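Issue: ligand-bound run for adenosine-5'-triphosphate - logging full I/O for the record.

Environment: standard queue, default settings, no custom constraints.

Inputs:
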Amino acid sequence: MKIIEAQNLVYKYPDGTKALDDIDFSVDKGSITAIMGQNGAGKSTLFLHLNATLRPIQGTLYLKGEAFAYDKKGLHNIRRTVGMVFQNPNDQLLAPTVRQDIAFGPKNLKLPDPEIKQRVNEALRLVGMEAYADKPPHFLSGGQKKRVAIAGVIAMKPEIIVLDEPTAGLDPQGCSEIIDILDELNAEGKTIIFSTHDVDLAAKWADSIYVLHEGRIKRQGVPSQIFADHAMISQTGLRLPAFVQTFRELKLRGISGSDSPLTMLNFVESVSKPFDVLKVRCAIAGTDVHSGETVGMVMKNGTLYTKRIETDMNTDNPGTSTTAMGKVMHDARAGEDIVVSEMTGTLTSNTGDIHIVPIPRIIEGGSRAVDLEAIHAIISTPGPKKIGAMGTSAKVVVRKAGIKCDFEVDVIQSSILAALRGQNVVVFATGGMVDRVIQKIECNNKQGGQQIKYSSLP
Ligand SMILES: Nc1ncnc2c1ncn2[C@@H]1O[C@H](COP(=O)(O)OP(=O)(O)OP(=O)(O)O)[C@@H](O)[C@H]1O
Ligand SMILES: [Mg+2]
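Outputs:
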């Protein structure tokens, strides 16, 4: 179902600037849509139409199939359904304290006081700004202001969240945290529309991308379609995601792959098949080795080891097969890092399992509803493993339990990559994110490569 739609939208600013021209735009309920385009392309102007701050001079907007009504009742309905995080948080944060600012929207919805309080606390927790609740917003850093602005929208519980450059000005960790929060909201069913100049983010996170250029829609499609259109990408001043660029370079050097990759996982898949063309690999010496010696190679628990062919190869663990060989480039003792060249053959690792541990969302009691002892029991089962946490509640639980997390960013992809390298992974996933992990693993398994086993613990 199309939750929000615009047809033939035209907008001119009072000074005569035509900022939008014949825009057709539609968004599926529950999807993530990215709008990209150069400075001045019209992204913010389009967004200001989505919550009826601006009214088109031509064309129509539809919310759940009904044309926007701009009377008092209509505007109330639009603003309740479409939450907007402005490009500049200073345009949004006006109250004397962070807490009052976040409460502003829910108050306008005329909610009862206890409910307002509860929503404000929940939103503060979700964006990790509880400690700043009583500070004036103008004393906060740019990234902190952005979090508060997002909290203000979360507290309104809108079905559609529109964010104008949500990650601009954030540090890498802050950027991942914001995306994680939005991902969690999306897993709960919220529709997300955002603008960004970050091509890597749009490529890996958006379901659908619109490219705006000089007020018009230049192209719309899924990320793989958008980033396959190299001519359009350069005409509109965008660039290819880093993985696509790297992939193209490798392809020009004879390392072929199938489709252009959009994530690290795709990328590894696309270059790991023709393994024997990778001439030099780093490994760990299984025993003392000498320059020029030919050794076998095994992948064990996520690390590549060399093995003496005549002595060690027969004692490999079952499930770890090696038909790969290479020449050691320098003398090394057992346990030292070495460089191996002239690799031939293929290297198959035993695949690790992924255990998914569901963690209730904050509104379902969050980390307080979790039995920490049970968590410790899961973690302390023998064998090396990687640990990931997705979503705020899961991260809180992991921290509370004193568990060191390996993945807090790009958790699904990192977990699949680790499992493919032979490591077992435990993923703590908040609420609806469990289904998302399972979906991605099944999608990997369907592609026919190494099959990853997974289980979802109660
Ligand atoms: N209030 C205004 N009055 C007149 N022209 C405006 C106004 N706001 C924006 N514009 C013009 O409208 C066009 C689109 O601007 P808009 O802010 O929508 O671009 P944008 O894609 O959001 O750019 P950015 O990436 O820099 O945020 C630009 O040419 C801009 O100069
Ligand atoms: Mg803008």
